[in-house]
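Practice problem: predict the structure.
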Amino acid sequence: MDPLSVTASVFGLVAAAGKAYALLETISSIQNAPTTIKDVQRETRHTEIALRSLCRFLQRIDPASERLEMIQVDELRVVLADAMLLFSSLESMLELLARLGRLRVAISWTKYSRQLDDHLGKLERYKSSLVFMLSILQWYGLAPVSI
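Answer:
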């Protein structure tokens, strides 16, 4: 596993999570915004924290360590690729909602509530996978990781 390329991918995800969080902050102030917005915002922040933990871990790890093989490179790539797709999709929807909010257009929240719930579930699953991988690496004593 090349920690440098993975670290670059994770930094990109941290930036995407930060942008999504900022958009969610804007959207949450829109009149009649559903509570799901706050739930997605919370999960986005928790995911960002887990991503930052992974970055710190990868910056301290010895690339020659045999224990790195506890998590297959392909598994990590799949999780990171899924996360990038998730944040891309989420960001597109949030930009639309933010634009509608700035125009003071009445937003039909029921139209977007299912999409928000879907994104929330995906965020929770992604965060769980990430935390699980970090826990495996921490358990095997590669480096102390704080979440």
